[in-house]
Amino acid sequence: MINKDSRNKNYNNINNDYIAGYMQAKLLFIAPFIKGKNNQLYIKPKLNISDNINNKDLILLIKNKLNNIGYIINQSNKNIINYNINNIDHLINNIIPLLNKSQLRSDKYLTYLNFKLLINILYYEKPIYGSSLWTYCAILAINLNPLIKKSTQLRYLNNEDKYNIINGIIPKDINIKELQYKYCTELFNNNFISEINNHTLITNCQLLNSDFINGLIDGNGNLSININNNTLNCILSIKQDINNISLLNDIKSYFNNIGNIHKSNYNNNDMYYHISNIDIINIVIPKLTNYNNNINYNELTGPKIILYKIYNYILIYNILKENTLTNEVIFNKVLIILYNTISNKKNITFKEYKLKMINKLNI
C-alpha cells in the first residue's frame, strides 16, 4: 500500500513525450507587451506551467530535464507553483526542439505552431516597434491565450492600432506564407488542419503513446476509487477544454474505443473522458503501466502523480476477487488502503473514516 506522501519516490524516468503530455494539460503560451524606453512596446514571449504546490517535485524534475532553464515562483498563499520560461534563446534552443519532436495535440498544437512562428520572427527578424512586421507579431501574440482580454494587452496602443490588431487586420505588405515557409513549415504546409461540422480539426503526424497520456493524466486527470452498495468502483477521468475534444476522441480510440466523452456538469467549456471499473484493469493498466503480479511499487511505471492510486486500486481489486466486505478482517484491510488513497482534505482520522463507511454501507 502506498499513500500520497510516499508517492514521490516513484518520480523517475520521465521522457519528452511525458513532458509534452503534462504540458498539454498545464502549459500556457503567453506573449505580453512590455513598455520600454521611449514608450516603445516589446513583445515578450513566455511559457507558463502552473500546478498545485504539492506537485513541486514533478515541476522540479521537468525543469531539470529541460537543462534547468527558466525560473520557479511559489505562490504559497494560493498553494500554486509557477514554472516560467521567458528567455528567447531558451525557447528557441530548448522548447522548440522538444515540442517539434514530442508534439502537443489538437488545438494546443496549433497554438504552439503560432507561438513558434512568433518567436522565430522576433528572434531572427527583430521587428521594429510600429513596423508592419511588428503589427503582424502583435496579432499573433494576442491570439495565443484567449483567457487574457485583448484590450488589456493592448492598453498602451492608440485606438487605430488597437482596432487593427484586435480585428486581425494584417498589413498589406506582409506575406504570411513566406514567413510560414521560413519560420514554421508546418503552418505553411497546412495539411494537418481540416474543417468538419464548422470545427477545426488538427491532425498530428505523431501517434499517441502511453507516455504522453500518462503526462496528460498527471496534469488533467484523476482516478477516483470508492465503494458503493458493497461494490468496488473506480473511474479514470481526463479533462480537456471543448477546443481539444479531438484529443479525447484519440484517447478513447487508444483505449479500444471503450469509455465515454461528455460535457462537464459545471462548465460547458470542459469535456471529460471517463473509463471505469473492469476496463481499467483489462485495458488502461496494461496500456499505461508495466504492472504484473510480481512487481512492487518502486518498479512500477505509469502516471507519476496518481500512480499510487492505481497501485492501491489493484491491491483492493485483487483482495475482493476472492473475498467480500462482509468479512470484518477483509473490510478493515480494504478500508485502510482506501483511507490512504483518498485526498482527505478535511484531515479526518481513520476512526472517523471507518465510521462514515460503516454508515454508508450499512455494515
Give an overview of the whole structure:
It is a single chain. The chain has 363 residues and is α+β, with helices and mostly antiparallel strands. It contains 15 helices and 12 strands. The strands form 4 sheets. The protein has a 4-stranded antiparallel sheet. The mean pLDDT is 89.
What proportion strand? 15-25%
Distance between the termini: 24 Å
Q: What is the H-and-E element order?
A: HEEEEHEEHHHHHHHEEHEEHEEHHHH
Helical/strand content category: alpha+beta
Q: Largest sheet at a glance? A: 4 strands, antiparallel
The neighbouring-strand order within the major sheet is 1-4-6-5
Query: Kindly state the mean pLDDT as a whole number?
Result: 89
User: What is the overall shape?
Assistant: elongated
So what's the oligomer here?
A: single chain
Helix content: 40-55%
Rg over CA atoms:
24 Å
Number of separate strands:
12
Task: Provide a count of the helices.
Answer: 15
Ranges where pLDDT stays below 50 over 5 or more residues in a row are none
For the structure shown, list the relevant keywords.
single chain, 363 residues, alpha+beta, four-stranded antiparallel sheet, 44% helix, elongated
How do the helices and strands line up, and which of them pair or pack?
Blueprint: H1 16-26, E1 27-30, E2 33-35, E3 41-43, E4 46-52, H2 56-65, E5 71-75, E6 80-85, H3 88-101, H4 106-124, H5 132-142, H6 150-153, H7 159-166, H8 176-183, H9 185-189, E7 193-196, E8 199-202, H10 210-220, E9 221-228, E10 231-241, H11 245-254, E11 260-263, E12 270-276, H12 278-288, H13 307-321, H14 328-339, H15 350-361
Antiparallel strand pairs: 1-4, 2-3, 4-6, 5-6, 7-8, 9-10, 10-12, 11-12
Helix pairs in contact: 1-10, 3-4, 13-14, 14-15
